[in-house]
Design a protein that fits this description.
Two copies of one chain form a homodimer.
Chain A: E1 4-10, E2 13-27, E3 32-38, E4 42-47, E5 50-54, H1 58-72, E6 78-83, H2 88-93, E7 101-106, H3 109-118, E8 131-135, H4 138-143, E9 149-155, H5 171-180, E10 181-192, H6 198-211, E11 214-221, E12 229-236, H7 258-264, H8 269-272
Parallel strand pairs in A: 6-7, 6-9, 7-8, 9-10
Antiparallel strand pairs in A: 1-2, 2-3, 3-4, 4-5, 10-12, 11-12
Chain lengths: 282, 282
């Protein structure tokens, strides 16, 4: 049987992945969850029809989301992950030796269950005693926390559509993130593929830049996301990712290095033009 | 009519582009030539079923291929383009004021004809008096030239398949390129999308590194090429692209800047692992 998974990058562009087998399919309280075994990248998690993470290329997204923040902060102790139910972000966070307590707030227990069954490399650190996994709404959780986290990583679905990730791209949510950070804390969140959704980079950057003393955008090239070029916003109350303060850097990574970290903040004019003036470097 | 162009990145992955109209279709002496008007990126040239260049994103490939070389060389005067029939590389080369004579050797006149009709922004500089356009086999042309060019840019189809680009990825061709360079000359050629064809990066890098005093790899993210992550090899008889020697840099570019140039040479371990030890930086 010739089975293909098609994803719409836009109304005009699709990515197609040859599927060996559908491993899992469930409609949770929040979203449609599928795990498919792709020929190209192995087991892959699909939420509401959008490819989220694959065994084959997940290292890029998770290393860049976690380590840019952890290496920028001088000594992150308390880390909050909003979303991240597949476990990959938690796994990278827990590699950092100064991290004493990490909390992962995932709205959908069915995502964690699917990942535990079918993405064992992603979930390898989910039982680390430093990690607390909570199943609740990330925005509601954040609203009860004040000045508690050194690093907050928002690892959620895209803001397009009506999935549970939508609320995590609002000004109210970014205000709550800022409120929950310790004095020199910073936060990171992906802002999507600018060739196809430039408005996400533009709108989120404008909001975060107006709300945090320091905001920066960086990129990583991720083959399972449309166009490859994928962006992340940093909102910081102090440390500048262009001048990392942590003496620690991770070893054994396949994408992140200190040099890759620096290079990731160099933006072509085509991308920089989406940003408010305060965010344009050089 | 719902018309889609499908391109196979591998046996397991396809890119699909919604097509407004097929503008042109011809079988030349060398290849199958199509121009399709894509909803996402406008008029797009397809050779033997592979997307080559689109109006919407061509600036990335052409700026990076041309300017990395032109800015690295202290004062490029004579430039050879092997292939490049769509005209985009010549357009960028001719922006450099020290360039006194550029030669474009394209095997297939039908490609230039198609580009002149349907890709006017690509071909805007094809009538520049400093440019000579020749229709002949690039490898045969090169074998008659010795120490003549400051910069050689190989702008051809992929080495996979049996298209006319195949011969441009052989050790014999790289030897001829080296022979045709002036004493401090350098050459650049794309080495494809390493997520899908890592063997091209590996094999070409090994050959070029064994043949040139200096070899380096850089990347650019190009949304119409599979996975976005796209690589280029530099073989140099002298100037190091990490220390550009030309006081000139282009202005008004949308992707290339001096900072993007430097960042493009920073390779993640996943990519660097494909290279011979002599090419690994830092």
């Amino acid at each position: 049987m010739a089975l293909w998974f098609d994803e719409a990058a836009s109304a005009h562009h699709q990515l197609r992945w040859k599927v060996r087998r559908c491993l899992y399919s469930v409609r949770s309280a929040y979203q449609d969850i599928q795990v498919i075994d792709t020929e190209q990248f192995g087991p892959s998690l699909v939420l509401d029809g959008i490819m989220q993470t694959t065994a084959g290329d997940e290292f890029i997204y998770h290393e860049m989301l976690a380590h840019v923040a952890l290496v920028t902060h001088p000594a992150p102790e308390r880390v909050l992950i909003v979303g991240g139910g597949d476990g990959g972000t938690a796994r990278e966070v827990l590699r950092c030796p100064t991290v004493r307590a990490a909390t992962m707030v995932e709205i959908d227990p069915a995502v964690v269950e699917a990942a535990r069954r079918f993405l064992p490399a992603h979930t390898a650190a989910l039982d680390d005693p430093r990690l607390e996994v909570r199943f609740e709404d990330g925005a509601a959780f954040l609203s009860r926390h004040d000045a508690e986290y050194d690093v907050i990583l928002v690892d959620a679905t895209d803001p397009e559509g009506d999935g549970p990730g939508k609320v995590l791209y609002t000004p109210e949510f970014h205000a709550a993130v800022r409120q929950a950070l310790r004095p020199r804390g910073l936060y990171i969140q992906h802002t999507g593929a600018p060739f196809y959704n430039p408005e996400v980079v533009r709108d989120v950057s404008a909001d975060v830049a107006s709300r945090f003393p320091l905001a920066r955008l960086f990129s990583a090239t991720i083959p399972t996301y449309p166009g490859g070029y994928f962006t992340f916003i940093v909102g910081s109350l102090g440390p500048d990712p262009l001048q990392p303060e942590n003496p620690w850097t991770p070893t054994g990574t396949r994408w992140y290095t200190p040099a890759v970290h620096r290079a990731a903040f160099v933006l072509p004019p085509y991308i920089a033009d989406l940003l408010p003036a305060s965010m344009v470097v050089g």
